[in-house]
Amino acid sequence: MGDLVKDDVVFKKYSEAKATRDLLVHAQGEINELYIQKSGEFSRGFKGQKIIIDQEYFDQNVGQLKRISGIISR
User: Fold this and answer.
1) pTM, whole model, 2 decimals?
2) What is the distance between the alpha carbons of residues 70 and 74, in angstroms, rounded to a whole number?
3) Which residue of 22, 28, 45, 50 shows the fewest CB atoms closer than 10 Å?
4) What is the spatial distance between Cα 47 and Cα 39, in angstroms, rounded to a whole number?
């Protein structure tokens, strides 16, 4: 499962969601270099911008978490 987790897009998107959470808690929602590094190709903005959390983003993350749960339960 190790390679699957590392390479599966759902886990990369999960990393972006965790990085977004960190921005909200530690950086007042302002995108910084650490967020860009952690989120990689799924970064949702540029340094200095405020991260946007809208209903579509929230719904997509709920779907990603359900997929992860399914992967783990198998």
Assistant:
1) 0.85
2) 6
3) 28
4) 13
